[in-house]
Amino acid sequence: MNGQDYYIPAAAMGTALAFKVPALRNNWRDPLLRSVCALLTLAAAVFTFAAPPTIEAVNRWTGIPNFSAPLVYCLITAFSAACLVLIVNWRGGPPEQTRRFSRRWILGYSVVIVALTLLFALGEAPVERLRDFDTYYANTPYIRELIALYLVAHNVAAFVMVAMCWRWSLQVRGWLRAGLMIIVVGYVFNLSYDATKMTAVVARWSGHDLDWLSTSVAPPLASVGANISAIGFVLPLVCQRVSDSLRHWTTYRRLGPLWNEVRTSGSDAPVSVRMSWWSAADIRVIQRESDIHDGFLHLGPYFDPLHRDEALARALSRGADEEGARAVADAAMVAAAVRARRADPEGRVIGASEEGAPPAADGPRDLVRISHALRNSPVVAEFRRQAALSGV
């Protein structure tokens, strides 16, 4: 693998991090957001410093042969801890329990990082090795222990990640389950990376040469595993956001008939606040709901409970369920009220009548049902015709 194979995923991780930084700045106390940013930072750092050109440059800048080896191993160890902490925070639970588990993983892997640094300082690695450090120094005192420790720490993290994500995936559904299964696949590649590295190192211990496993097979496995795992982490978050956005836009569109009906009820109807084109879908839904409720207040004196009762009886007689019949009844009352308001341009009813009860819409779902009935119900169409013929 050349430097480009490392720098491209590093740039992708850095780009994802850049999009997360503003949110982190505004919500620093969110442990999940902090975990995501830490994971992206360490992933970008691992790919950057593991690239052979970077390894050579760091060794040259520091003046210490093979200084990059413990640096990369410490970054990989920190990345392993970040993955475990992210899963703990992602899964959630009692805050104190989540913090306790996170602290334990951070503390444990911090000890490993300190040990890796001390072992490199105690050992001797005078010959620079850009690609085969693990096998070349597999029998060197202290360096041997350094290599074994980092591989064991990484292997433990991979096993724990596979077990945690697998168990969790059996308890959830949808995009979250898909993401967890993808993470499991990614960490199976990481386990394969550990197995090939360990096999090559153990072969050196026993006097054999399987260095090609460490230099040619292990790096691609690590790269594939990291990229697959990154997709698993990102997929549920992105797809959930897209799903939420689509749901909001669908709700916004379905509220359209009811919104148009009450908005055009008269010249003095409430004026909708103009929103910028980049406004989020959920904000638009809230604004449209607010406009509809303002319209109900405007139409209050023209709501006739008799219209609602009659429409309810007609809908039930035609086989509608109770929930659908109530939506049809409210929609018919709204349609009749709009006709009555248009027939009273001087507002005489407003000054002479008590305000009627508005539709009992409890949240956007009820409003969507009323909006759907307003457009599609034959009962509502009949009430419109009756109101037109009566001149109300």
Describe the main β-sheet briefly: none
In CATH's first tier, which class of the largest domain applies?
Mainly Alpha
Q: SS-based structural class? A: mainly alpha
- The CATH topology of the largest domain corresponds to Rhopdopsin 7-helix transmembrane proteins
Describe the global form.
Answer: elongated
- The radius of gyration computed from the alpha-carbon positions, rounded to a whole number of angstroms, is 32 Å
Which residues sit in consecutive blocks of at least 5 with pLDDT less than 50?
none
The ordered string of helix (H) and strand (E) elements is HHHHHHHHHHHHHHHH
Q: What do you see in this structure?
A:
- The protein has 392 residues and is mainly alpha-helical.
- The protein contains 16 helices and no strands.
- The protein has helices at residues 3-26, 31-50, 52-62, 68-91, 95-122, 133-136, 143-169, 174-205, 211-254, 256-263, 281-299, 305-317, 322-342, 348-352, 364-376, 378-390.
